[in-house]
Amino acid sequence: MATFNSYFSNETIRTLVILGLCLLMGVVLHFVFIYFLKRVSKRTETILDDAAARYCRGPLLLFFVLFMIYIGLPLMVIPGRFKPILRQSLSITLIVAVAWLIIRFTKVFWDVVHHRFDVGATDNLRARKVHTQYNILSKMIIVATMVIAFASILMTFDSVRRIGAGLLASAGVLGVIVGFSAQKSLATLFAGIQVALTQPIRLDDVVIVEGEWGRIEEITLTYVVVKIWDQRRLIVPISHFLEKPFQNWTRVSAEILGTVFLRVDVMVPIEAIRAEVVRLCEQDDRWDGRVAGLVMTDVGERTVELRALVSAADASKAWDLRCEVREKMVEFIKSKYPEALPRFRAEIKKVSKVSN
């Protein structure tokens, strides 16, 4: 009993004191580091340090505490059978902390990219290109980090390391089997990488896929989310954009032409209608000043087809401008030239009576 009390009062208290000091020093180091980061961020214009201080608090605290415990471990008095377990637990937790820190840094750089390349700008082609590349790259980094961290954790176990050495001889056969079974998944994964490099689509691109008009909302390594104009979401495999044709209205520029078709009587005054289309465009803020005109595109038995061509900075403005021009032109023709509205003509001949 005396030996137990002596052991508890000496070695255990010493170990607890050292452990407490390590925890305290880890917290202090974390506090000093974050404080220094905030002071630096106030003197610089970049948001890198601000984002780092905001996103990396948790993983940095865990890392500093574990690091100090790892340093103080040789000074602690721990029974021999518990030392390997404690070291392995610290190693696993340290791997998790580093992986967590790397994943958090992807969010830090995302804030930097989002701040430097604003997709809300008028000419956002380069911004959408960079956002698309980093969006896919960050997902690849996260997946690779998790895989490496999981493999590193498994390698801390001696039994797993021995099993891995035994399976190394059959790795070729296993690779062939996995390759055949996951052929479609691997093809989809490589398709995602190819989309990131060649960029047939970018974030916020206006596309028509499967007959649906929408914008690219999210690009992952395996699928693309298209936000349809009526707020539905169309989930499309990413390989679709490499294997099948689709329309991309903002591939080079967001500028676009819109058409308005009118069916009117053959007696319509073309020049007056053309002048009214130009006037309406000049008074509308959605018109970008490039194209405004009207031509006759078809002649039928009773009507002619007029096509008004207008331009806008993007597809949304072009749609609204087309609807406005169509509505105002119908009102204009009804009020100014009602005789130009489509009508049916018939000729009635009077037949005289023949006397007997």
Care to describe what's here?
The chain is α+β, with helices and mostly antiparallel strands. The chain has three domains: 2-116, no CATH class; 139-253, SH3 type barrels; 256-340, 2-Layer Sandwich (Alpha-Beta Plaits). Helices cover 58% and strands 16% of the residues. The chain contains eleven helices and eight strands. The strands form two sheets. It has a five-stranded antiparallel β-sheet with strand order 4-3-2-1-5. Helix 2 runs antiparallel to helix 4 (83-116). It is elongated and about 135 Å long. It starts with a helix and ends in a 20-residue tail after the last helix.
Please describe the biggest sheet, giving its number of strands, its sense, and whether it closes into a barrel: 5 strands, antiparallel
Instruction: Give a count of the beta strands, DSSP E runs of length 2 or more.
Output: 8
Protein structure class: alpha+beta
Low-confidence stretches: 1-8, 167-171
Distance between the termini: 151 Å
Rg: 35 Å
Question: SSE order in H/E notation?
Answer: HHHHHHHHEEEEHEEHEEH
- Mean of residue pLDDT? 79
Enumerate how many helices there are, as a single number: 11
Strand order of the largest sheet: 4-3-2-1-5
Helical residues, percent: 55-70%
Q: Outline, from the CA principal axes?
A: elongated
The share of residues in extended strands comes to 15-25%
Quick rundown:
This protein folds into 3 domains: 2-116, no CATH class; 139-253, SH3 type barrels, CATH 2.30.30; 256-340, 2-Layer Sandwich (Alpha-Beta Plaits). It is 58% helix and 16% strand. The protein has helices at 2-43, 48-55, 57-72, 83-116, 125-155, 158-167, 171-181, 183-198, 240-243, 270-282, 315-336; strands at 206-209, 212-219, 223-228, 233-237, 247-248, 256-265, 287-299, 303-312.
